Amino acid sequence: MRSLFTASWLVQLAAFAMLATAGLSLPATAEEKQVFSAEDIFALEYASDVQVSPDGSQIAYVRNSNDIMQDNTRRNLWIVDTATGQHYPLYADDASYTQPTWSPEGDRLAFVSNQSGRNQIHVHWVEQERSAAISQLDAAPANLSWSPDGRQLAFSMEVEAQATEFASSVHRPAMPDGAQWAKRPVVVERAQYQADGRGVMRSAYRHIFVLPADGGSARQLTEGNFNHGGTLAWTPQGDAIVFAGNRSENFEFESRLSHLYQVSLDGDIEQLTDEAGTKRNPVFSPDGQHLAYIQGTGEAVPYANSKLRVMNWGSQQSDELLSDFDRSVGNPHWLGNETLVVSYQDRGRTKIARVTLRSRILDILEDVSGLPSGRPYNSGMFSMNEQGDIAYTRGHATRLGDVGFKSADTEPRYLTDLNGDVLGQRTLGEVHEFTYQSQTDDSEIHAWYITPPNFDPDKSYPLVLEIHGGPHLNYGPHFSAELQRYAAEGYVVVYNNYRGSTSYGEDFAMLLNNKYASVDDFGDHMSAVDAMLEMGFIDEENLFIAGGSAGGIAATYAVGLTDRFNAAAATNPVINWVSKVLTADSYIGQIQNQFPGTPWEAHDHYWQRSPLSLVGNVTTPTMLFTGESDRRTPISDTEQYYQALQLRGVDTAMVRVPDAYHGVSARPSNMIAKVEHALAWFERYKKDND
After folding, report:
1. Backbone φ, ψ for residue 77 (5° rounding)
2. Residue 18 has pLDDT above 70, yes or no
3. Mean pLDDT of the chain
4. Which residues are CB-neighbours of 251 under 8 A, at least 6 positions away?
């Protein structure tokens, strides 16, 4: 398939080159522009990890682009001058570059790169225009943090644990020279032994290290069989580092508990918090008198708002800000000593706001966007310096993430246009926002729909209902390559933030408590279909349903309750909750926080939530699309549904994606394969009503 895409794309490029050579003008009007194609996915780029310098003059960021030959995403390091808009690469080659981090004076930029074949910490000296690797590490470093005097870098890194008594006691005969034996068995004794995207992991624990900023040997500060990490906050004096972790012997089973600790440069550890819940993102005020951080709930519930807390560093007593604010907040930055800047999600959008120590909140920006997943998930990030200059990922429904910038006294503006050469030459589907009432209980549901290019409201179009994952996530008016492909092929696409979605408050997110999946969210989805039919341009004989992860669950649950859809395409679905929670990497937290008991204690509840319980009702042709290495919703669940539908004689296809994990569309060709398989499946069952 990729060779066909490559050939087609090269033909298009050759045609454009011929036009330019002949002196002819390139297409400019919407009618002349092409629609968004599968091949275009390889041409997309986006900005991530945008980091503003301490003086606000420059922004370093990771420029992500798809490599059509290697079928992966290149991550290069670029710089933008905020005054002139000059845009140039610091590194743009076959290596990967991540985690750009400015020194306190802005004279150096630390980053992580695999230039040498293994991820190491590098430093770039800005004035001298020279860079060097300063570490020789055995594992990948994360969470880079400069000391206040710029002389050291702190980071976290996994350290392999010693073999257990059982594993080390197993007798292993010596293998003769030249012999070829089977690989050694892997001994698993940890509760958290696997992770999606990593598979069965080596037994290791994350520890905190410091490294001289001009190179040398890294020194480990923390010890023990615990994980230490997250954001690393140096104390203002530079003599200790504050971090989040759980140093309880039972930490692997305590998914709702972590504390803040500080470790001195001599390795002495002090626990700073003792209240229930999780803590993360510690950050000191400029004068060092306060420590802000984010706290999550300690209750065994599927969702609760994250709260902003501020600790008096002298007394180590903390207070909660914005107690009545019904949204989760995150990513705190100090603006002076009396104000914080945070991000939060509201009705499908990410906003940035100022918060005073008196709990007053004022929005600054609301167009944070642009970190892609193929679907219109609400995402984005920002960084800020002490003057209040903000760099962020900026975008909207038809613009993938660019570098945005807002200084303390100017309006926000774009500093890059990474996809103007591609999307500027395409007619995209138009995104429309609306609300409707759910048939379940008259709750207001927020939704969007995309109309095909050159849409004519007097015509009738097939409809795709596309359902987001999570379920405690949210869609919004953000660029979506996959949904734009549906629209380009003549489908109207509707997507909603059904009950359980975040960014609408805690009560709305908790409407799926012990009801995931259920007739309640099914009612939200079917009401979206009915609302679209009332608009008068949907062909009621051509209705389709799709979704991934939680959306895949919702799609397979829906076809067990209705036969209104011509066909369904479910990606990474959970089909049997009993088998899912006992084979997936998320099992501990999911059992504790999402179900009323273990599978053997509450089996009826697990079965009622499982699409497999409704398989006897299914008549809808269903395509299943799952990564073979998925450990979040293992492919064994997909196999159960496929075999059940085969036994019942229902048209079904199972598309297995080799070497792909839960982020099945992470590689460009797999994103293309996902949407093109769905389109082919829908076309097979579309009725010709012309």
Report:
1. -110, 120
2. no
3. 93
4. 226, 227, 257
Structure tokens at 81: 């001058």
Label residue 531 by pLDDT band (50, 70, 90). Answer: very high
CA distance 616 to 607: 14
In this structure, what token pair is assigned to residue 348?
């499908």
pLDDT of 15 over the 70 cut = no
Tell me the sheet residues that pair with 259: 245
Could you report the per-residue pLDDT of 119-132, keeping only the tens digit for each? 999 999 999 999 99
Q: Are 191 and 252 in contact (CB under 8 A)?
A: yes
Q: Which of 10-24, 233-247, 565-579, 621-635 has the lowest mean pLDDT?
A: 10-24
600: three-class secondary structure by DSSP:
coil
Torsion of CA 215, 216, 217, 220, to 10 degrees: -50
User: How far apart are the C-alpha atoms of 572 and 586, rounded to whole Å?
Assistant: 14
Look at the chain and count its residues: 690
Q: Which distant-in-sequence residues (6+ apart) come within 8 Å of 466 by Cβ?
A: 375, 482, 483, 486, 493, 494, 495, 546, 547, 551
Does the predicted model carry a pTM greater than 0.90? yes
Amino acid identity at 362: L
Please state whether beta strands 444-451 and 430-437 pair in parallel, antiparallel, or not at all (unpaired).
antiparallel
Q: Which residues pair with 51 in a beta bridge?
A: 60
Residues facing 584 on adjacent strands: none
Percent of the chain exceeding pLDDT 70 equals 95
The DSSP code for 464 is: E
Would you tell me how many other CB atoms lie within 10 Å of the CB of residue 318? 20
* Nearest-angstrom CA–CA distance, 94 and 77: 11
Measured between alpha carbons, how far is 124 from 133 in angstroms, rounded to an integer? Answer: 9
Q: What is the phi/psi pair of residue 551, to 5°?
A: -70, -35
DSSP state of 257: B
Task: Give the pLDDT of residue 3.
Answer: 32
- Can you tell me the distance from the alpha carbon of 60 to that of 123, in angstroms, rounded to the nearest whole number? 13
